[in-house]
């Protein structure tokens, strides 16, 4: 279940808001210019599937979004818990950074934890299958796929170069919760 928690940056343990209500999540995030929508993610794809399979399965949605918003590049991050490079891939996004373009991601399987640092507030968003999130350019943030990653996200870029992160060098991300592994068998 998708979830939003909002913290003061000085209190990493007690969120001042915690909600799984999708309308409330969208409305809180809209206040900081972040788009949060639910899209149908019914194609039979799973974490670890090859990017081409994902792109073929979601071609219609991708083409629509590209036509509407003028994206130049689309790629896929698809990682299962068995991925041999999972630690390296996890480490790539774990520290505070920003992009010089909006960060638009459509989760079509699994989950991941986005955390945004806006002013003195920290917005932790648990994104799940079916969530489309659009974070404005220059927003400070980090992303945790967890130690046993299991997700597929389609990424949309307005820059031809694709993913470019600018790291701030702060340690704020280390002080906030990480993505907890799913419990149970
Ligand atoms: C959810 S897709 C992988 C993470 C990513 O692209 C990013 O920019 C995290 O900040
Ligand atoms: Fe990012
Ligand atoms: Ni700050």
From TrEMBL:
Annotated site, Important to generate the dianion, chain positions: 105
Transmembrane annotation, as ranges: none
Binding site for Fe(2+): 97, 99, 103, 141
InterPro entries on file: ARD, ARD_bac, RmlC-like_jellyroll, RmlC_Cupin_sf
Site, as annotated: May play a role in transmitting local conformational changes: 102
Protein family per UniProt: Belongs to the acireductone dioxygenase (ARD) family.
Reported function: Catalyzes 2 different reactions between oxygene and the acireductone 1,2-dihydroxy-3-keto-5-methylthiopentene (DHK-MTPene) depending upon the metal bound in the active site. Fe-containing acireductone dioxygenase (Fe-ARD) produces formate and 2-keto-4-methylthiobutyrate (KMTB), the alpha-ketoacid precursor of methionine in the methionine recycle pathway. Ni-containing acireductone dioxygenase (Ni-ARD) produces methylthiopropionate, carbon monoxide and formate, and does not lie on the methionine recycle pathway.
Designated name of the protein: Acireductone dioxygenase
Species of origin: Lysobacter korlensis
């Amino acid at each position: 279940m998708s979830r939003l928690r909002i913290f003061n940056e000085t209190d990493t343990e007690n969120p001042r808001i915690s909600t799984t209500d999708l309308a409330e999540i969208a409305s809180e995030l809209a206040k900081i210019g972040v788009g949060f929508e639910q899209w149908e993610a019914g194609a039979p794809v799973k974490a670890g599937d090859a990017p081409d399979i994902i792109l073929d399965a979601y071609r219609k949605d991708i083409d629509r979004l590209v036509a509407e918003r003028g994206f130049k590049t689309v790629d896929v991050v698809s990682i299962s818990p068995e991925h041999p490079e999972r630690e390296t891939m996890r480490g790539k996004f774990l520290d505070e950074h920003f992009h010089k373009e909006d960060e638009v991601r459509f989760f079509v399987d699994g989950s991941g934890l986005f955390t945004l640092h806006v002013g003195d507030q920290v917005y932790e968003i648990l994104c799940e299958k079916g969530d489309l999130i659009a974070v404005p350019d220059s927003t400070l943030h980090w992303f945790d796929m967890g130690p046993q990653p299991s997700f597929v996200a389609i990424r949309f870029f307005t820059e031809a170069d694709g993913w470019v992160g600018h790291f701030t060098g702060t340690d704020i991300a280390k002080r906030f919760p990480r993505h907890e592994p799913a419990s149970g068998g």
